[in-house]
Amino acid sequence: MAHRHNDRAWRTGVALLIAVTLLAAGIAAAKDPEARAQAIAAQLRCPVCQNESVADSPSELAAQMRTLIRAKVAAGETDQQIVDYFVSKYGEWILLEPPRRGPLWIVWLAPAVALLGGAYLALSYVFRTARASGR
Amino acid sequence: MAVAPNMRSSWPRVWAGIAGAAGAAVLLLVLVFGLHRDPGAIPSPLIGRQAPEFVLPLFDGGTLATPALRGRVVVVNFWASWCVPACYEEAPHLQRIWDRYRDRGLTVVGVNIQDQDRLARDFIARFGLTFPNGVDRLGTISIDYGVYGVPETFLVDRKGRIVHKYAGAVTEEMLVSEIEPLLADADGASP
Q1: Residue B79: what are its φ and ψ, rounded to 5°?
Q2: Where are the transmembrane segments (chain A) (predicted)?
């Protein structure tokens, strides 16, 4: 009896998982053009602002860029093609997140390295003082 | 014999100290280097590339299509009437460049961006600008040129390549020094 009950719970779980996965896939596929344009604009740095994305900026240039992104989405360009277009015009400067490659990995890895180094220093200090007081 | 353990424990500390100092020195150098860079300067990736083509509706009617300018040296100037004082400073200089070189194979093109029609026309009348001037209403031309502010000026050679980008007001002297060799370039005259 216990075994059978377990089996049913297992099956229900799998069915639920499949349903959720399908639903998520459906939502992703149905992502409307406006949401896509918005997501692309959020990746781009507004050229006339200080650290503001094209999606967030009220400036006229950013508004024109959003219009252009919508037009490109409507014309069937992929997200990557649209981002690449802006990079080709403004350079990688326009990307709010630096690309993960080559020497640019430094900016992604440096915080983790600093955190680990700091943790090592802190722990070694704690152990040393603990050992000293224990002696 | 009491010295030995002491020696052993002090060496790693010395090396850690050296490594720490080296790390701090590198960080300091990076920061000093950063201080000497202009955070507002955006290097244009367009230099040396083919100038984007465009069709510009002109203020005095008609349109200007840039393929028609191939074989000429072109000065493309992005401006706005609210751009004070830089656009006001450079406007007479651009007009003088046009007067001086129009018969020698150079065209100045004014592209008005993010502006109002009446104010833009007032600006043109105020400086008596006679070179082709038009509106980039949707901003597609300025984005195609990677423009991030006004004024910005691009110098295009006879083969249609962008050879120079000026951010900020240009002067006649600045342009002349770049234009003369481009006009003298007989190689570029025969595409």
Answers
A1: -145, 170
A2: 105-127
